[in-house]
# Entry
Amino acid sequence: MFHLQAFKSAGASIIIVIGLDQDAKRFEIAKKLGADYIVNASREDVVTRVKELTDGLGCDIVVEAANHPSTVGQAIDLASAYGRVMLFGLYPEATISPLTLMRSGLSVMGDVAVTPAWYQRAIRWVQYKKVLVEPMITRTFRLEQAKEAFEAFHEGHGVKVLFEM
# Structure
């Protein structure tokens, strides 16, 4: 949701959010925050739908944050020629085709390539209300409720949770 708002604030023309059936709450918030299209991977082929929405071109920038290795190849398939793919998911291995990368001229980077200046910029965007954090927080927990908070998150009952100290 942070990326969605950052791209919208930077002037992106079309924002497409992809998820699964269990992401219904995320979809709802994404629409409120300005997503132009929601693609439910549980109900339709993501690559086909995104290509339809982009007149066959694909996306200039793809942010993969699903935390599943199967989405890495999919992110690459969603990117336009000479597009950028940013990987934020945490997984030890994923399978990609180097030939696809070479032929399409993609730039692929992970979150470890992010500089401290980018974090400072992100904090300023929150400070100046270019990116709103409040709509993403769906539940608040006390620190001693950490187990319950993680269970709620894994069951899809929340988008972001806030711990009160």
